[in-house]
Batch of 2 targets.
Target 1
Amino acid sequence: MINALGAPQSVLVLGATSDIAKATVERFADAGRLQRVILAGRSSEALDAEVERVRRLGVPEVQTHDFEARDRAGHEQVVAGAFAAGEVDVVLVSFGVLPDEARVRVDPLAAAEIVDINYTAVVTTLLSSANHLRVQGHGVIVVLSSAAGVRGRASNALYGSTKAGVDTLACGLGDALRGTGVSVVVIRPGFVRTRMTAGLRPPPLAVEPREVADAIAKNLVGGSRTVWVPPAMAWVMGALAVMPRAVFRRLPI
Ligand SMILES: NC(=O)c1ccc[n+]([C@@H]2O[C@H](COP(=O)([O-])OP(=O)(O)OC[C@H]3O[C@@H](n4cnc5c(N)ncnc54)[C@H](OP(=O)(O)O)[C@@H]3O)[C@@H](O)[C@H]2O)c1
């Protein structure tokens, strides 16, 4: 169970090698109660290294599950496997890709694959997790959305559209689960310095993964909600959302 201070005992991470996920698991471990971490990801040296790292953080039980986002039929088995071995307090949905927008725009099938990873796989894993948590009677699903989903931009329209879908589903599902003991926390970061954004110029308000992890840890109790990281992104995106389109499209973003 998650205690009143927001410290969980068990976490299922979907996208275990994500820099944001790694910082979040570390933050949970720092809280001192973490007993079991289930790392779901594609088999790789990075996943093996993450298993060792989590063990070194002092977590007694670390399990792995093969997770391929494009294998939608396999997702139920991954989620069910995690719940079969014990209670899961937090499901962290942290996988995703940031495509080369120019490349996928001229290759519709490549674009559809990005949708499969960033959106369809979130639909299947989110709904499956919600079903299992409802039966369990408690728990939190943390979903990595993005400020990019708030308004379509010329520079990342496809990525933004997947995040808009994720955000809409996660917010609505969180409200539908009210009263069940299960909540959905939607995280909307701006630019985070991770492997995903390596080589891109960080804009103002760029944050480190540990700042996203802190925001997640601080918002685990208190029900379904939306969390901007940093908080000032809420004001920036609020202003951009209502800006006339003729002006918006001229912004260098
Ligand atoms: N970084 C940002 O600025 C930012 C801002 C807003 C939201 N977000 C969101 O936050 C989440 C985490 O991002 P991050 O910055 O931590 O990125 P990251 O370090 O690049 O991690 C991405 C994760 O997605 C996994 N993944 C990619 N394709 C997959 C597939 N086909 N099957 C299974 N796993 C797959 C990767 O696994 P492998 O190691 O196997 O590739 C990795 O674990 C994403 O949803 C991202 O969209 C990021």
Target 2
Amino acid sequence: MTETLKGLLIGCGFFARNQLHAWAETDGAEITAVCDLDAGRARAYAAEFGIPAWHDTAEVLASGAFDFVDICTTMETHEALVALAVQHGVPVIVQKPFAPDIDTCRRIVANAAAAGVPVMVHENFRFQKIFRRIREILDSGEIGELTFGRLSWRNAIDVYSNQPYLLKTERFMIMDVGIHMLDLARFLFGDADDVSCFTQSVKEGLAGEDAATILLRHDNRATSIVDVSYASHRFPNPFPQTLGEIEGRKGSIQILEGEVLLVHADGVQRRETIEADARDWTSAPWTQIQDSVPRTQQHFIDALRSGRAFETSAEDSLKTYALAEAAYRSAETGRVVSARDL
Ligand SMILES: NC(=O)c1ccc[n+]([C@@H]2O[C@H](COP(=O)([O-])OP(=O)(O)OC[C@H]3O[C@@H](n4cnc5c(N)ncnc54)[C@H](O)[C@@H]3O)[C@@H](O)[C@H]2O)c1
């Protein structure tokens, strides 16, 4: 594969703008058409990003003109859109959350696997620079075998202006940000099974929860706490930073505000600042999120070209999704739920 891979982006809404900027700087790939059920949106992004074609339906996939498809619509549309790409044998990167429930995720995975079409879930948080650096530190063995972790996303960003559909989403916070944190927990601490969770709906008038506290037991017996909230009125507002700590048998890492890591091992402490790269299309406070998008998309293209597995393949993402599903079931029943028993 030496030529540039040609992609179709489906869904020209709020977040697709970041993806289109990111595609423009992804090596070995380009978006040659966009589509949206709202033709005005598709036309506007095609004009803004100099993309040759726009369409109002994804049926254009049948043309055979695409090497991959990037699906940036909300979760309830993913099953049909992934199935369309699979039907035409076109590899897919699809936004999180994967689907509204685990049975739908499983159907998507089975359908793609039967056709041998690779599918990756766009899980960008693990591609943030700071988490790649933490992974390196963990791999070096510096803090030893892990015993405990906490990943915390608590802020009061007004998500509702850009994403008004969140006001009406019944599975809101765990699906919107919790799923990123659960993927990060797996990335850093390994697979997990037992899950307990409490949820809260703090802002008035929401259909779903806007805060959740999740406790996980990992296969290596480490425990972790994942807590997410859009109702935490802190100053300064830490959005969009994931804060927390990781403890091992020989040391610890604290993830502090300002993209700072405090690494303590063998009685010595050091401070590392791992700042996301600002680009001409990124803007504070979003930079950390935006900078992770080209990194995620480059991983998708590199893996596609080399035939390697995606880190967050659809199949792998089922494990993350099962933790989210288990969290909801624990919150409903007040019991510890095994993700593997779902
Ligand atoms: N990874 C992240 O950091 C991050 C951040 C924000 C949003 N997201 C995710 O991105 C996804 C999209 O979110 P958004 O806020 O951009 O949504 P949005 O509602 O702003 O945009 C979705 C677009 O898809 C179009 N669409 C829907 N069904 C379609 C179909 N069948 N064919 C073609 N177009 C169709 C809609 O008309 C709309 O323009 C969500 O799943 C969201 O959770 C991820």
